[in-house]
Amino acid sequence: MVREFTAGLLVTTERGPTRLPLPPSLDHHDLVVASAGPLPNPVVAAVARLARSLPVDTQRRLRLVVAAGTDPRPLVDLAGALRLPVVRLPVPQTVPEPPRPAQPLDAGATVPRPTVASEALIAAAPPPVTATGGMYEAPAVPASPANRPPAGAFTVGADGRVRLVAGAAVPTATQGGRPVQEPPHAVAARAGTGGPAPARPVRRPGPPVSGISATVPVMPAAPAATATPGTAPPVESVPILARDAAEVTVQTPRAPAPSTRARSVRVEGAGAGRWCEHTSSADHRRQFRASLGWRYDAAAQYVTRLLSDRPVLRSTDDGVAADLAAVRHVVNSHDDELLRRLSVAAPSSGDLPLVSCLVSGLRRLPTLVGPVIRGGPPDPRSPLTDQIGVELVEPGPLLAIADLSRPLPGGVEILIWSRSARQLQGLADPNAATAVMFLPGTTLRVVGRNTSDEVTQILMTEVPPGWDVLPRPAQDSRITERLSDLAASRVATRSPSARPDLGWSTSWLDRVPGAPFASAPGGTS
């Protein structure tokens, strides 16, 4: 079921909740997913189709909100594929209401109003989202009528298809201040006073509780009927005082603890976020064509035949031929000097048109989610891969193959769990039909290391931009287990004397990500 509210949509399963406390959002469109149990695959697929079907302007401001109690793992993978930020809502926090007085009160007595600590969070907006595909904890928000989505106009069937219900009216939810309702006994205590009691700070005997610094808005003790429609009564912020720590517990939002994962290699300006939305310009394409000369004509003819065989790669813009020609040229290059220049964080002005067209062409290709493999450094004791959890940034494009049965040179193998590598089928040599390439600036995290007499295997997982906002030990554990099984199967069938015939320079595959190229004969790296 899909329900529409002011700032987005709420997707629930048949057993999922129909109302949720949501943080107010003025800068984003929220796609909220809630379920009382595991999310079925058809629902996840329906959410993906729904997100892709939204207008472009909406997609740019869209974020995926995971309700409390919902398994976020399939949605985190989906958000990474769609490059959406993820918000995980915690369980709303409330404070028990103080007990009612045991003895009746005299007329004219004023009873302090109960304060609810979570009310202070109603006006707290969620933190700004700048990363894509990442996840952060949203502040707890109480369930209030202003934040509840009304009945919607969409349904999700058992097959996961999203359907529009014709003629369904969708009321518009409102956001804003509202008077805090008084308990009935407080209203009764004011009876016979001849008018509303003046508002005054809530004071309780005893010293204040240490560590409590939040303030709670307190409404004037006046009948609700005297308030002007459309306006909120004035509020007074007072400190929360209590007899002891057990009487009132206030949990203020805390900033997430800094990550403790080791990061031994970082290249300024080389992150994949620099290229994830890149499109080549007409000037770069012109310079690239001029730099290749007759070799561009040969590559362009090959791309033309490829587009006739694979219509899915066609595009209405003029840059598709030059972009794919750049991919074809780089992937099949035997020029070690060119590969060395492409591996730097900031390409020179002469190579920038080539890199621009290469990245733009890679972004046109389909992605691969799953294991890939490449060779490693000649020295299996490379310090770059000694520490589990270290993150390596590859400034240039990174090549690998998805055929895990292929032999590789050297005594080191690197198994990578890909999330965004681009498939090069039709552009690479026919002997390497399963080749893939990562965008420049890809970050890889070391999650395991296996050493035997024959080979040293390094296990890595790709970290897309914004993906490491929160640690995911369970997900990393599953990926590590899968890569370990694949590594063990390769050791059992390994043939040390076999050499690959991939149709390109072995410099593509015999270097650890993030490490410099080996020194060329008579030169420097």
From TrEMBL:
Domain of life from the UniProt record: Bacteria
Region (Disordered): 173-214, 490-525
Full protein name: Uncharacterized protein
